[in-house]
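Researcher: I'm preparing a figure for a lab meeting and need a structural model of a single chain. I don't have an experimental structure, so a prediction will have to do for now. The sequence is pasted below. Please return the structure as tokens so I can convert it later.
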Amino acid sequence: MIITERPNNESTAKAIATLKAGGIIAFPTDTVYGIAAMPFNKKAVKKLYKIKEREKKKPIALLVSSKTFVEKFAVSIPSKAKKLMTKYWPGPLTLIFKKRKSIPDFLTSGLPTIGIRMPDNKTALKLIRKAGGALAVTSANISGNKPAISADQIKRLKGIDLIIDGGKCRIGTPSSVIAVVGGKLQVLRKGAISDPRFFHLFLLLSLFKPYFTY
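Model: Understood. Here is the structure written out token by token.
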């Protein structure tokens, strides 16, 4: 049974208890609503895949509450990535890093990389911080469908234990995704960042060699 709560201290405590018990929660971010599990709980992460009907070959990203947590999951943070983080975190930018060996394959579909983002939403940041600083999160929708931007749009998904209703998401579009592996930058998804200055900075960091792959 899905329980819907408004964001407050009590609902945050319920959400954290749900996560620690292996459950799945949904909450708003700056971009779209996400469904989340504890990142090192294999059974919980499998639930995310089942709820979303997501292909096993597609990895799950992490949302973090602070830039400092990136060092726990990424082998290194290239200088180009640091510049992007400084300018666009917290915000609608997911960066793909080479992952540490401690990151389980069930989270990354066996890939050597991990996607990480720091959202610009107080409710999300509070939940992530209380959960330990990082959550495995994917957009709240069936794969191939439009992501939910309000709590009402999530109720059709089966398997979610608790929804934090923080109203309509401010941006309403999934994050931009850039890979920062091997010294190159690759735009994997154009996403929410429409500011032309973003892509100007991207091109500068790429030494004017755009690596666009969609």
